[in-house]
Structures
1.
Amino acid sequence: MQHFPVFLAVAGRRITVSGGGETALAKLRLLMKTEAHLTVFAADPSSDLERLAADGRLRLVRRPFGPGDALCAVLAYAANDDATEDARVAALARVDGALVNIVDNLADSAFITPAIVDRDPVIVAIGTEGAAPVLARAIKTDLEERLPVALGLLTRIGKAFRHAAESLPMGRKRREFWGDYYFSEGPRALEAAGAGGVEAALEALLDRHLTAAERPGRVDLVGAGPGDPDLLTLKARRALDRADVVIHDRLVTPEILELARREAVMIDAGKEGFGTSAAQDDINAMMVDHASRGLHVVRLKSGDPTVFGRLDEEIEALEGAGIDWSIVPGITAASASVAALGQSLTKRGRNSAVRFLTGHDMKGFADHDWRALGRPGEVAAIYMGKRAARFLQGRLMMHGADPATPVSVIENASRPDQRILATTLAQLEPALTEAGLDGPALLLFGLAPRVARARLPEIQDLIQTQEATR
Ligand code: SAH
């Protein structure tokens, strides 16, 4: 970060602008939203500026900026559309002790003006350190669509009510009250009855929250998807937004953990597949313990929680302790992996069934119906199959599977470091050894990347190395 965003106190302070044309005017339109005293220096001011001065919106000094003109100013803008004049003004203003901005001159400016979404007192400042103004504008438009115009009004009314709301205990209770206000009761009351109605709604809402019985804790068993935060469901995001405690597996990516409420306690249960870093019993006990204390626990599991996630053991523990729970499904690794291949899991005329297998279970390599799996056209998504590759290969070939059956290995599906390895059953073990994968990987038995996709450089590489070893 080369620029640190802050909100500067400008009410009643001085800000100077040098320049009488459109560039100065553009800055002034923003600055006039503040409660600062604006002084504009321009030998030849435009008629718009004259009008603003006549309306008392700013003070106009009809001469060039001179020594001492920025004394006591917090900010000074040089907006003359003339590099020499801007440099002269900037040097003088610096001597006066003001922070100086030269419009469109990042290198010589002490600060830059962000793109602003104004829902006063809610202000969003967007900056790209000058790198991508187009991006800043796009984000601004997006936020403007999302933040209702009335948000500012709701916030002002809410702010005046803060004192009354202190009758609720700090923490979750108060948070829930404000959440109800901003996201449901407030907008509803404003629409139905205008600003006057909002205050009455706040009183009623507070009453309701003060008399409400203590809400019991609960556990949401949430699918985090394969790693790309954009593949989280809205429900998962909402659960993360409200969580008091997040207990997550090792495979859940940092980008997703970032989305949890800032105050949430994050617990790494360190589990990867059937691994036992934290014993299942300990995880169960942890969930029960936190939820019994009235907390909202999110048990965050990679992919879909119902796929090779020992979900039932966790549910049984919660049921046993009488704790309320729900499942939020997620996108399983097989879905993300097959999408990366540009293929379908099922296909008319090829396979009308698909199997989800684990290469590994708690007792070691998992046994399956190898004969059925080895029939032509079969498709299987094999989880935790990396270490079991040699075993899988041996068993399948022994039971008649064609050694030329395509197998695709997708490492880090949906993540920036995703890799696809296209191989065959016969080559599977050597190909895996050579590729030396260290991220989570899924084997798709019976599926090759769609041909057009084989042009992707990473696949091309791998196909070539395999051909060379053949
Ligand atoms: N519940 C998870 C699976 C948990 S078992 C799901 O629905 O996806 C853990 C196994 O999932 C890993 O060993 C690996 O085989 C697979 N896996 C999880 N995330 C993956 C990813 N991003 N890319 C490839 N495989 C993944």
2.
Amino acid sequence: MTENKTLTLDEAMTLALTVLTANGFSEGHARSIARTVYAGQRDECHSHGLYRLLMCVATVRANLVDGAAVPEVVDQAPGVVRVDAKRGFSPLALEAGRPLLIEKARKSGIAAMAINNCFHFSALWPEVEDFANDGLAAMAMNPSHSWVAPAGGTRGTLGTNPIAFAWPRPGKHPFVFDFATSAVARGEIELHRRAGKPLPEGVAIDADGKPTADPAAAMAGAMLTFGGHKGSALSIMIELLAGPLISDLTSMESQEIDKGANATPLHGELIIAFDTKLFGGNNSADNAARAEKLFDAIVDQGARLPSQRRYEARERTMASGTVTIPAKLYEDILALMP
Ligand code: NDP
Ligand code: PYC
């Protein structure tokens, strides 16, 4: 049986901040990364919670990421914000560009933000959920490393390419979904390997192109997209929109830069924000009510909305004031202290 370690929420946040600052991250980066992994752990998204500290530190120790980079915000066009992350991690770059993106979306109804030149380790739901909490609908997407074979192929070519969407709901948690376009996230494969557990069927092939449930063989082979050719096409769209469209790297190009270091991917991210009130004009209250009818019709029949599990986990965590992680992960995080 796996032994676990329980931490209070304060201890979890302090652990993240201490490990990051001890490994040379500036105060701003340490705070924004800690906030991101804390949110993941709080909502029981284990593949993007405290576990990610291992990759953040490995990436700074490999001299790839600049732990003190100061992002530069550029007002690129009336509807476009560009943030150069300067090879820092993405959360601080997002924080820097967010106010201008919101201002532009409120002025024009829609605006986009390209974050360039960023190392990226995070789940996307905290980002889009924050925009929805400010009353905007939002989408986010990014490439990663070329671990995933296209439908019908056998070679890692596409990233795990997540896409997330949020819709604001007055008085309620926003509607949010966020998923990898691979059948499972790379982080899940890594967690299965650490726990010595087999993978579900249909998520990966080995180096010979044969289906495998062995996480190590999957990492040496290729992951598969969700939904066959449909997930594959969506993943290609993400490569294009959050790659060449915004003058940034594809997952294959990010993988080349990694040179086998197994660090966090380096690439761009595209975020699009929509002002539902400006789109809706005089109808916006009615539009919001009709959206609620749709959600009700889904929930009424016993189906659940995406993020419901996460919001329930958040409630449990906040009530207990604690998070629980595998004891081995806790030891590995402590061992990151220089
Ligand atoms: P999951 O498959 O765990 O979940 C995908 C989405 O579907 C979630 O919004 C989830 O909500 C929802 N969902 C799950 N089951 C149901 C159900 N039965 N009914 C309705 N909705 C459901 O996510 P992935 O493993 O694909 O991705 C995990 C994370 O990894 C994401 O947050 C993603 O951003 C991150 N990631 C980041 C990458 C990066 O490059 N930075 C790359 C790839 C992934 P709920 O959470 O409530 O279960
Ligand atoms: O889980 O696929 C993943 C991932 C890649 C980068 C960060 N998370």
